[in-house]
Amino acid sequence: MSSTTAESHLAAAKTVLSTVGSIAAAAMVIRTVSNDYLPPEFQDYLSFGLRTFFSRFSSQLTMVIDEFDGLVNNEIYEAAEVYLGPKISPTTRRLKVSKPENERSINVSMERNQEVVDSFEGAEFKWVWVVRQVESSGHFYNPRDMNSTLRSEVRSFELTLHKKHKQRILDSYFPYLLKQAKSLKQEKKTVKIHTVDIENLYNINEAWTAVNLDHPARFETLAMDAELKGRIVKDLERFVKRREYYRRVGKAWKRGYLLYGPPGTGKSSLIAAMANFLNFDIYDLELTELRCNSDLRRLLVATANRSILVVEDIDCTIELKDRSAAGAAVRDSEPGGNHNQNKVTLSGLLNFVDGLWSSCGDERIIIFTTNHKEKLDPALLRPGRMDFHIHMSYCTPCGFRLLASNYLGIKSHELYGEIEELIRSTEVTPADVAEQLLKSDEPDEVLRDLIEFLTDKRMENEEAAKAKNGVDGELLGEKGDESQKQEEEKQEEN
Predict the structure, then answer these.
(1) How many angstroms separate the CA atoms of 66 and 148, rounded?
(2) Strands in 358-456 per DSSP E
């Protein structure tokens, strides 16, 4: 190559570099001037105009997904936030990592202005999380996002794609994103138990207070009949998969369970196992704290989807039988009577369980527990209200073997035969058996003490049954004597 040619190339390169430098310097000057002297509204207008001009010559399309639609949360924004968290592109340089107090999982999410590329059905889509600072408006208050209001930020996702994929995004990608985000959120979720906050009952966002549910109960560890456990698990799995079925038949997507049986048979443990199995929150409702049916409806609206609403000891917490007007008047007139208390009625509860208000939410389970099923009004027990009645029985040989495996770590023992025979003939709760198994770490010692406990328990049960039969016999005898006396008086009169 001649020196003249080299010099010409060098001169051309210098010219190009000089031009680029001049353009860059001019751009910096323009940017500085616009930021310092032009109002934000004009800057946005200018930026929008430039983007619109260049977009006419581009095959790319950008979809903007704002955090809010007015004052309402944007579901697609929330889904994108969850869905994109675990995704990292080669170009990603910054991520946000957090762990809320008392939560199990670590949250990973995009940092502002970072790019993530996602693939779907052979196409690539580029996501950017955009956070823009805006001038705070003192008279404006957004009750749905206190954090954003205070920091004066407007947040959105920008999704860039080829124009030919627009319909695929709307028809397939966004539904897929919503479904995946729901699944991811459910996997990371920490199960909580909620209780009513009476002082904030009329604030729908604060009517319930929550703490983490750390109950270790699982179906694998429940001391109950294996066949019954299998039926319950199958019923729960079928319920959560039938969204479209419930819509097609025109029913609210809910299911009612009645747990009944003696105290100590594991009703609360079964509820915890159901919550852990489904990863559903529990809402523990105490009816005696409510003043009227409207309070009940207000609490129902404030519960979240994919949750379990529990009313324990339904027969004891409130009088559920319909009351006559005369009876009510008598009670109100009694000294110390307070007609303003316990105004939740049977009709109000039925409407709560199976009426129009029961459809205010999806994928909900309602559980009532009772020690005395016979005390409940039949209207509360029919299918559509309590769909699945689960009898929590006394301990069975199968339940004992599971408890022994859980507490003692053994599958068999020479004393099992005698223990199982005693359990078949003795009304003893799983809670009683578990308490005995906790007393020592030595299986031989524990099992011998359990045999002694079961023997004594059976004798107590037999004595109690004899005493009851004796009282019943005396009552029958007194009734018989009274009837005979009345008959003799009639004969004398005749």
Answers:
(1) 13
(2) 364-370, 388-391
For the chain, what's the residue count? 494
Which has the closest alpha carbon to 352: 316, 278, 299? 299
Q: Where are the beta strands (DSSP E) in 20-133?
A: 60-66, 68-69, 72-73, 95-98, 107-110, 115-120, 123-133
Cα–Cα dist 233/226, whole Å: 11
Helix, strand or coil, per DSSP, at residue 425: coil
Specify which residues 208 forms β-bridges with.
196
**DSSP 8-state symbol, 279:** T
Contact 388, 281 (CB under 8 A): no
100 neighbors 120 (Cβ within 8 angstroms): no
Give the bridge partners for 212, in sequence order: 192
Q: How many Å from the N-terminal Cα to the C-terminal Cα in the chain?
A: 149
What are the tens digits of pLDDT across the range 213-228? 888 899 998 988 889 9
Helix H or strand E segment including 196: strand 192-196
CA angle, 139 as apex, 133 and 143 as ends, to 5°? Answer: 75
Provide φ and ψ at 211, rounded to 5°: -135, 160
CA atoms within 13 A on the CB side of 425: 13
Question: What sign does the CA torsion over 451, 455, 458, 464 have?
Answer: negative
| Cα–Cα distance measured from residue 246 to residue 148, given in angstroms and rounded to the nearest whole number | 38
Given a cut of 90, whether residue 281 has pLDDT beyond it is: yes
**Quick one: which H or E segment has residue 11?**
helix 3-37
Q: Which residues pair with 308 in a beta bridge?
A: 282, 365
Report the alpha-carbon distance of residue 407 to residue 404 in Å, rounded.
5
Estimate the crossing angle of helix 75-83 against helix 174-188, to 10 degrees.
60
Both tokens of 365, joined, read 């389970």
Q: Residue 314 is encoded by which pair of tokens?
A: 């339904």
Q: What does the pLDDT look like over 387-408, one tens digit per residue? A: 999 999 999 999 999 999 999 9
Q: What is the DSSP letter of 221?
A: G
Whole-angstrom distance, CA of residue 165 vs CA of residue 168: 5
This prediction has a pTM of 0.68
Segment (H or E) for 283: strand 281-284
